[in-house]
Hints:
The protein has 319 residues and is mostly helical. The protein is 71% helix and 0% strand.
Amino acid sequence: MRNALGYAAVVGQVAAVVAGAPLLTGWMRLVRARLEGRAGAGVLQPWRDTRKLLRKEPVTPVGTGPAFRVAPALLVATTAVAAALVPLLSTATPVSGHADLIVVVALFALGTLALALAGLDTGTAFGGMGASREMTVAALVEPTILLSVFALSIPAGTTNIPAIVADALGQPARFASPAGLLAVAALAVAVLAETGRIPVDNPSTHLELTMIHEAMVLEYAGPDLALVELGAQMRLALLLGLLSSLFVPWGIATGASWAALAAAPVLCAVKVAALGALLAAAEVCWAKVRLFRVPELLAGSFLLALLSVSASYFLNGAS
């Protein structure tokens, strides 16, 4: 029974990320539209866009190689594997032992690298420019994510993410500590950069000189573009889910209980939707920073993550 529950949790996590990611994007667009005084297209619009793209004929630029063709599927696949590892619904799954912090971050980095190689493979000026910018951002974001979660792993004594979440459930006061507050601030900025949101990037922009993510995928069309968009939406949903699991872990099943597992998707959806609405509301008030100021912003988040590790080490060493 325990194995069946664990496999059901893994399937539920992947299904929730794949099916719920476009809904989260639609929800954030709707919140932003309402705050700007517009009606908005509705929560289901991203799914309608995906269906429209899937019906179109795929177009491959002349001269592109395997990197361009494989990148969309690889982006979705790596994010789906990460969704199976991150404890969104349960900490007791058959793959929990493999859900190490470094593995999860490496999966995100692999998807980013695949898109960057695809941008270079097109041979266009904008593709190369977007790939260069994306890797610059990734070089600063990935260490920040590692250090932010590592600060939380010090009290737990492990870098296994489900174990960190399970340990944090028994000590909720840990989130109000200086190390916890610094870690959540650093990880929040890293999530914005990793998902290409304001103030680092504008997902709705079409101005070539300011694009990062969009510049890499300008040559995609049809089903390939649908996969790229789905992969980006899945990464946003998964990173917001990771943020909620680490700092608001209540509602995640920790034992062999079908009732707890049944309630976990609802609570997870509420937490992620709340974070998405907060992010959408913040984007209405924020402006995109100038491109050459982005490294300064990300370096500041890295410093916060480094301070959170130092504070966590000092507090737990002192105790």
